[in-house]
Design brief:
With 45 residues, the protein is α+β, with helices and mostly antiparallel strands. The chain contains one helix and two strands. It has one domain.
């Protein structure tokens, strides 16, 4: 059964890196570390 994940993403609007790229890179890191797995539910706060 998928687990619900309460994750916080750090977004810096003034960064030269677009917001979507900042979130994408953080999601990739979470997957690589095993903290986020296929089927996990990520929700906004």
């Amino acid at each position: 059964m998928p687990q619900r994940k309460d994750l916080r993403f750090q977004v810096i609007p003034s960064s030269a890196t677009p917001v979507f790229r900042q979130v994408h890179e953080q999601v990739i890191r979470l997957i690589a570390s095993g903290e986020l797995r296929s089927g996990d539910i990520v929700h906004g706060g």
